[in-house]
Design goal:
alpha/beta; 2-enoyl-CoA Hydratase, Chain A, domain 1; 2 domains; 21 helices; 14 strands; 39% helix; globular
Length: 560
């Protein structure tokens, strides 16, 4: 018997990976390097663009089955998602969804090698990841979506949320999966929280074997192409999935029982995760008072100070009748007594993400037989996701994926989602709580900020100074933090003027309610339940998303 050398995906580049997975002779690349769809935003920052923008899209077959491969090139900008690469990814999934809806099934396989959003394009990455996530959720109604994380970089940032949405995840021992990269956790929380240089410990926490033992991924394979193909075939032939994003009760029960008096060892966390079960009642400590925040202020005034139906003190949920329609308002707020100490100031942490998923899902289930679905209003005042050791250990990426999926499912099943941004809307927190809305409203206010990372951490990752980033933001609006720059990208439905966000008058409250009602009516006038409208606004067409639109048009013309 002749033995053959293994064909490594870990050591291969994105294009080689895609070609190796597909049947020989079946691969056909869309928007390849000779089509020269480069990022229009990098040269201004003295960065040489790449002619495929680090994203490889191929159609072909695996054992004769029509397959779409999306492969991310980690050697270009750390696999970061920018406008062009994000549009290629999202646009390909959207075309696959069209095929599936028309009865022509095509099976997506995503090969991850990415640090998340490309910080040099910032909010373009944020918009793209929301659109990618929406397409994955919709596609799973027709076919399994398989994610592969071979190694090198792994899957981090907002892209870890899309990995969490996959029907099944396949990793190697070399692969890593987490929301916040170890270096960023150390930057944000200090070396006492996590020492990013302790590589062996990092792999034990978030490496493939650790994630498998925690029950957070489906397969770990040896790095050889036939092993990946066998794993893909296994998913396709045995479509019984873990559906981890639906297990909010089990995860909330486990998190409630945790004692955080000291750091939990990875071996202990794996046992807890594997044995998670639902308990009948969860009671939180609410003796720490109610820390003021814009999220709390607007939840209170919009619901007439209704009591929250959520037991978690950091997540406020209430239903309210308004103009003959039922609204569910959801806000994430600070709690100085939160035992998850990295989520005490309004950050979107483990409990917050799973709780939001629970109450969005429950609205969907309760309204399943109703012709008129309640309107869901995420009130956004989130300074970011929680950067912490325990957050990464217990899979904050998956918790945020569950929240994303809940909102996307609600929208796709006919719930109007009107996002109201009253304060900060930062990074994975905004992706998880707000970015899946049909319409986004925001206050025209200096404290309203939209971005993917704090300036200090962005400077660390990009190896620039904060001052250099601020200078680049003057010519690249997607890098800026202010709400006007975000509006110029075409995603905001209405910018609300003249609102005192901290102490609104009755007249200002009425103005906001009317804007929410108007956005709801606008949603109900169309049957489109996708996020496509963000590419159809005047700002998007004229300038804000020109490259996104051009990429999708090119994919459409090359799709066969």
């Amino acid at each position: 018997m002749v033995s053959t050398l293994p064909v490594s995906l870990v050591e291969s580049k994105a294009r080689e990976r895609a070609q190796a997975i597909l049947d020989e002779g079946s691969a056909r690349e869309l928007l390849g390097p000779f089509d020269r769809f480069e990022s229009p935003h990098l040269e201004a920052q003295n960065i040489v663009p790449q002619s495929d923008d680090g994203m490889v899209i191929m159609k072909g077959t695996i054992h004769g089955r029509p397959t779409l491969i999306i492969s991310i090139e980690g050697n270009f900008q750390g696999g970061g998602i920018g406008e062009v690469s994000g549009a290629k990814f999202a646009g390909a999934l959207e075309k696959a969804l069209e095929d599936c809806q028309n009865g022509n099934l095509i099976y997506p396989v995503i090969i991850y090698d990415t640090g998340g959003v490309r910080l040099q394009e910032a909010n373009y990455g944020l918009l793209s990841i929301a659109e990618i996530s929406s397409a994955i959720v919709a596609l799973k109604e027709y076919v399994p979506v398989v994610g592969i994380i071979p190694g090198k970089i792994g899957s981090f940032g907002g892209m870890s949320l899309t990995a969490g949405l996959c029907s099944a995840l396949v990793m190697t021992r070399e692969g890593r999966l987490g929301m916040n990269g170890p270096e960023v956790v150390e930057q944000e929380a200090g070396i006492q929280e996590l020492n990013s240089k302790n590589k062996q410990f990092i792999w034990e926490m978030i490496g493939g074997k650790g994630r498998l033992k925690s029950g957070l991924v489906d397969r770990v394979v040896e790095d050889d192409v036939p092993n990946y193909i066998e794993a893909i075939e296994s998913v396709w032939s045995n479509p019984t999935f873990a559906n981890r994003t639906l297990q909010y009760e089990e995860f909330l029960s486990m998190l409630h029982e945790l004692s955080l008096d000291g750091k939990i060892d990875p071996s202990v966390s794996r046992t807890l995760l594997q044995n998670r079960t639902k308990v009948n009642e969860i009671k939180y400590d609410t003796s720490n008072g109610k820390t003021a925040s814009r999220g709390r202020t607007w939840f209170n005034v919009l619901t007439d100070h209704a009591p929250s139906i959520s037991p978690a003190p950091t997540v406020l949920v209430a239903d309210k009748e308004q103009d003959g329609k039922k609204f569910r308002y959801i806000a994430v707020v600070p709690d100085e007594g939160n035992k998850f100490y990295r989520a005490r100031h309004g950050e979107f942490g483990l409990v917050e993400a799973w709780t939001v998923a629970k109450y969005v899902r429950e609205a969907v289930e309760e309204d399943a037989g109703s012709k008129e679905k309640r309107v869901i209003v995420p009130i956004v005042d989130v300074p970011g996701q929680a950067f912490g050791y325990h957050e990464e250990l217990f899979g904050i990426y998956l918790a945020c994926s569950a929240s994303v999926e809940a909102y996307a499912t609600a929208r796709q099943q006919g719930h109007p989602i009107v996002t109201l941004v009253v304060g900060k809307a930062i990074s994975g927190a905004f992706l998880s709580h707000g970015m899946q809305g049909n319409r986004i409203l925001a206050f025209d206010d200096d404290q309203v900020q939209v971005h993917v990372m704090s300036k200090k951490s962005a400077a660390l990752v990009t190896m620039r100074t904060v001052e250099e980033l601020e200078e680049f933001a003057k010519t690249v609006p997607s890098m800026a933090y202010d709400v006007h720059s975000f509006k110029s990208l075409g995603a905001i439905h209405e910018l609300l003027q003249g609102i005192n966000a901290d102490l609104p008058s009755n007249e200002q409250l009425q103005q906001v309610k009317e804007s929410i009602q108007s956005a709801t009516n606008d949603i109900l006038q169309t049957t489109d339940r996708s996020l496509r409208i963000r590419l159809q606004s005047p700002e998007a067409i004229e300038k804000g998303r020109k490259a996104s639109i051009a990429v999708r048009n090119a994919i459409n013309s090359q799709w066969k």
